[in-house]
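User: Sequence in, structure out. Go.
Assistant: Echoing your sequence, followed by the structure tokens.
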Amino acid sequence: MFIFKTYSILILILVYVDDVIILGSNIYVINNIINTLRSQFALKDLGRLYCFLRIEVKYFNNGLFLSQVKYINDLLAKTHMLDCSSTTTPMAVKAPLKSNDHQPIDATHFRAIVGSL
């Protein structure tokens, strides 16, 4: 992340692999940065940001709201856990992984789910 800040201007540039997000308080400075980058690199402007790295962006008059609700709902659906109850401590630290029918759970699958969080 690159940050440019003066008394009246704030520009944030986030670079992730080959994706670049430019946010700021001054559209003229943002356009100048985009044009400068475009003169040096092949750019494709995808317009307004709606999703980045599984983070949804919603716009409001006074700012942005970042959310991962869709990602989490998709993960819960994928793991057949949409109807599960929440709890403060989902399991004992050393408890063996077992399903409802007391069959061992594939630890690799469990680790993949936890890794998705």
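User: And one key feature?
Assistant: The helical segments are 27-40, 69-78, 107-116.
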